[in-house]
């Protein structure tokens, strides 16, 4: 469904962030992207929806090469790709509901969104999503009144209301405590399964990735050095991916209540 073909990004500074990446992600597959700082994980996620312009190569979403699209066609194609950010990227002074509905901006046109007149079907769907993530009672709260975990749930709803085929998720738990991180990863992966959605999750916490996804891709210096099941990530493999960096430091301490939570 998503195919990266010799995807390359060289920044103006000369930094070669991606070196001819080939990757296929089938429909409905959730994968984690791991690797040390500077490996090119964020660049890869952002080249897929062209928030960063690739230098060369192809990004094929259902056989349409996104790198060849003009701005109008790209805007339409971006509806198919929901994005979830580390810092949530909510509009703080707007309500939870308004933030979720902003995910429909690619569909409703400028004036309608400017006047915040969304179709009833969008509003109904926003309520359904908020209910699903346990935030229905917060719909009228301002975004700046929410905790980190709650903000990320709003970010997830905003991405899903786009009705995307693919989720691009950039460090979704980096600003959260370990327990909330696990809840958010569980929610993202459950929602992907429920909706048959593919996802690429850039995540620095290896243990968290291993807990929730069936496929892990390891990047190092802009190249894929691992692509396989989480169980194949032996200490040797991890040392190969992370090099001198201590990969054990990327594993967050698991709370004592982990077993209780897992049994729930
Ligand atoms: N806007 C930019 N201009 C120039 N170089 C950049 C830019 N963004 C990233 N880079 C460089 O590209 C390389 C890959 O960076 P990227 O942010 O994609 O890595 P990452 O794996 O996501 O790292 P981190 O986990 O620290 O976020 C690094 O060498 C970085 O310095």
From TrEMBL:
Highest taxon above the source species: Bacteria
A GO MF label: ATP hydrolysis activity
SUPFAM superfamilies linked: P-loop containing nucleoside triphosphate hydrolases
Pfam families in UniProt: ABC_tran
Domain ABC transporter: 2-246
UniProt GO cellular component terms: membrane
InterPro entries in alphabetical order: AAA+_ATPase (IPR003593), ABC_transporter-like_ATP-bd (IPR003439), ABC_transporter-like_CS (IPR017871), ABC_transpr_PhnC (IPR012693), MetN_ABC_transporter-like (IPR050086), P-loop_NTPase (IPR027417)
Cross-referenced NCBIfam families: ABC_phnC
Designated name of the protein: Phosphonate ABC transporter ATP-binding protein
């Amino acid at each position: 469904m998503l195919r990266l073909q010799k995807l390359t990004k060289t920044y103006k500074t000369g930094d070669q962030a991606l070196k001819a990446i080939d990757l296929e992600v089938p429909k409905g597959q959730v994968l984690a992207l791991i690797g040390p700082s500077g490996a090119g994980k964020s660049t890869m996620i952002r080249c897929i929806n062209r928030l960063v312009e690739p230098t060369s190569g192809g990004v094929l979403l259902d056989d349409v090469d996104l790198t060849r699209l003009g701005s109008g066609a790209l805007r339409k194609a971006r509806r198919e790709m929901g994005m979830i950010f580390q810092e949530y990227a909510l509009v703080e002074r707007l309500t939870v509901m308004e933030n979720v509905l902003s995910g429909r901006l690619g569909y409703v046109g400028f004036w309608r969104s400017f006047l915040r007149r969304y179709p009833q079907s969008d509003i109904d769907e926003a309520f359904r999503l908020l209910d699903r993530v346990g935030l229905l009672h917060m719909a009228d709260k301002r975004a700046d009144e929410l905790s980190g975990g709650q903000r990320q749930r709003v970010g997830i709803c905003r991405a899903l209301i786009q009705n995307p085929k693919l989720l691009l998720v950039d460090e979704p738990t980096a600003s959260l405590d370990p327990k909330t991180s696990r809840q958010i990863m569980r929610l993202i992966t459950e929602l992907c399964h429920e909706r048959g959605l593919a996802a690429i999750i850039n995540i620095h916490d290896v243990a968290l990735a291993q807990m929730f996804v069936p496929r892990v891709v390891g990047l190092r210096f802009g190249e894929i050095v691992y692509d396989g099941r989480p169980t194949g990530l032996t200490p040797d493999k991890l040392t190969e991916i992370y090099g001198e960096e201590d990969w054990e430091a990327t594993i967050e301490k698991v709370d004592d209540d982990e077993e209780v939570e897992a049994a729930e």
